[in-house]
Amino acid sequence: MKYKHVFLLLLAVCLCLCACSGAGTENTYEEENQTQQDVSASIDTDAAPVDAETMTWGDWTVDVPAGFTLEGGDFFDETDPRYFSLKKTDFVYFDFKADGEELIMNHYNYNKDTYTNEQTDVQGTFGGSDWIGFQYSDGFGGYGFEAYATVDGELIRVSCAGYPFDDALVSAVLSSLQYAPTGAASDAP
Q1: In the β-sheet with 60-65, what is the strand arrangement from edge to edge?
Q2: Which pLDDT tens digit goes with each residue over 134-168?
Q3: What are φ and ψ of residue 116, in 5° steps?
Q4: SS3 letters for 21-56?
Q5: How many CB atoms lie within 10 A of CB 176?
Q6: Which of 36, 114, 153, 165 is most enclosed, with most CB atoms within 10 A?
Q7: Are strands 41-44 and 120-126 parallel, antiparallel or unpaired?
Q8: 42-76 confidence digits (pLDDT tens)
Q9: What are the φ/ψ torsions at residue 49 (nearest 5 degrees)?
C-alpha cells in the first residue's frame, strides 16, 4: 500500500510539472512564428562609395574595405580558390563560398534554421546580381545575414556578421564582387 501512495504522489507531481511547463507554450510559439514571418527588405541600389582596395582570390575579385583583410581558402585548405573572407575581426566579417548549388543550399537552409533571432527575409540587387537571403539579430544590437546569388554565371553564398543587409558597406562589397575564370594568381597574403 505504501508503494501505491508513493507512485500516485510521483504521478501527480509529474502531471503538475508537465501542465506547468506547457503553460504559455502556444503564445511563445506564435510570437516566434510572427518574428520569423516572411518580411522582405528589398534593395535595388548602386554601391555607395567606400574606401576600399580591389583584390583577387582565385577567379573572384572584390573590393576589400579599409580595416578589413582578404583571407583566402578556408579552415581545411587555405589555398582553395572557392572560399575567401573579408575580415575585420573574428566577429565582423564576410565569408564567401562557391561550393556548388546543392552544398550552398544545404548550408543556407541549415543556417536559416539556426539563426532565427529577429529573422527576416531579404533580397537586393547589387552589381547586377540578385541576392536572396535572410537577416538576423545577434541579440546584442548587432546584425548579420546570409545570402546567395549568381554572380557572372557562378553561384556564391555569403555569410556576414556585424552588418545588416541594407548597410552601405554591404552594398559596396556585394556590388564589387566579380567572377572571371582566368586562373590568375592570388593577390591575398
Answers
A1: 52-57, 60-65, 178-179
A2: 999 988 889 999 999 999 999 999 999 999 999 99
A3: -105, -5
A4: HHCCHHHHHHHHHHHCCCCCEEEECCCCCCCEEEEE
A5: 19
A6: 165
A7: parallel
A8: 444 454 567 999 999 999 999 999 999 999 988 78
A9: -60, 130
Closest of 165, 171, 177 to residue 84, by C-alpha: 177
C-alpha cell at 45: 541600389
Distance of alpha carbon 38 from alpha carbon 58, whole angstroms: 36
Residue 59 CB partners (closer than 8 Å, separation 6+): 81, 154, 179, 180, 181, 182, 183, 184
Grid-cell match 548602386, residue found: 46
- Is beta strand 60-65 parallel, antiparallel or unpaired with respect to 52-57? antiparallel
Closest CA to 57 of 150, 148, 182: 182
The one-letter code for the residue type at 98 is A
CB of 33 closer than 8 Å to CB of 157: no
* Cα distance between residue 89 and residue 84, in whole Å: 15
Q: Are 188 and 70 in contact (CB under 8 A)?
A: yes
> What burial class does residue 38 get, using C-beta atoms within 10 Å of its C-beta: 0-12 exposed, 13-18 middle, 19+ buried?
exposed
Cell of 142: 548587432
